[in-house]
Design the sequence.
């Protein structure tokens, strides 16, 4: 459950960037997401099965 699951993030996906800012760790991801206001959408660059895709995530 949660916002990531609703956005389409799957087990095994690796989030490599938030709005084109590289994600270095889980803690860094949390810091990046925390900079945005609730209700705003950000673009996650996700590595999945050898490729990369962008997934929009609405901040909750």
Sequence:
């Amino acid at each position: 459950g949660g916002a990531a699951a609703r956005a389409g993030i799957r087990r095994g996906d690796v989030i490599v960037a938030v709005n084109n800012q590289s994600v270095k760790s889980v803690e860094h991801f949390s810091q990046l997401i925390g900079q945005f206001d609730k209700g705003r959408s950000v673009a996650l660059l996700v590595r999945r099965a050898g490729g990369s895709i962008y997934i929009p995530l609405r901040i909750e």
User: Anything to note?
Assistant: The chain has a mean pLDDT of 93. Residues 23 and 29 are 6 Å apart (CA to CA).
